[in-house]
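Worked problem 6 (solution included).
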Amino acid sequence: GYIGSLIPFFIGIIPYALVTFGILDSGLEHIAISFAFLVAVAWWFYYSLPLLRDVEQTYSIDRTEGEFRKSLKRLRKTFIDIRKYKMIFLFLIAYLLFIDVVNTVIRLATNIGGDLGVGPMTMLGVVVLVQVVAFPSALIYGRLVKRFGNKKMIFYGIFIYAIGVFMVFLIRDASTTYIMWIVGVLIGTAQGGIQSVSRSYYAKMVPYEKANDFFGFFSVFGRFAGIFSPFLIAFFQSESLLGTNKAVLLLLIPLAI
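Solution. The predicted structure is:
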């Protein structure tokens, strides 16, 4: 997945790179960016065809009247069941917080870098670096889990993210934008590992007979992750409570820990 995602990325970035380096007229920048979106659409459509053409759903639940109300009742029952398992419930709360920071770093990295004065080509290069580093790191992470266990590797991933966020805070001007490359390497070593190890650790905790319902909650918590950190960043930036936009990034560290 990490390596495959680089293929449409490199195809889509070619026109933009030509504009950035002055080979093409700067007035074509909008078209170059639009081309990248078209490449992404074509990529998703082409690789969705096997699923649309060859995969048939074998099992399903028949729709009945009052399905929405029944779903809410099942949801309430599952929530009550999860609360009976203290360790599972606490892990879900912790997961919601630390994976929120992980998703925020993934989604807002380019925005944050741009606000700090990091050039667009540098940011794109860092994105590629993260993907390249994440591929072997995910494999190494899996081996380290066998030696040190899931819990310790999750703590390691959180620690790496905390260091990465703090290093972004150290970027002052154009002369220190090289720090973004170091951050890219750090995030790449932990990004894939912390996500996959969290899932496997949760799977070990969940009772087999309740796996379906409990993993539904796990999925919902993962979907909600990436909301709190951007909200805090936007709130403190708008209110200027911490003086600088960089200082707001430090909020992510205690949230993750």
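Discussion: DSSP finds eleven helices and no strands in the chain.
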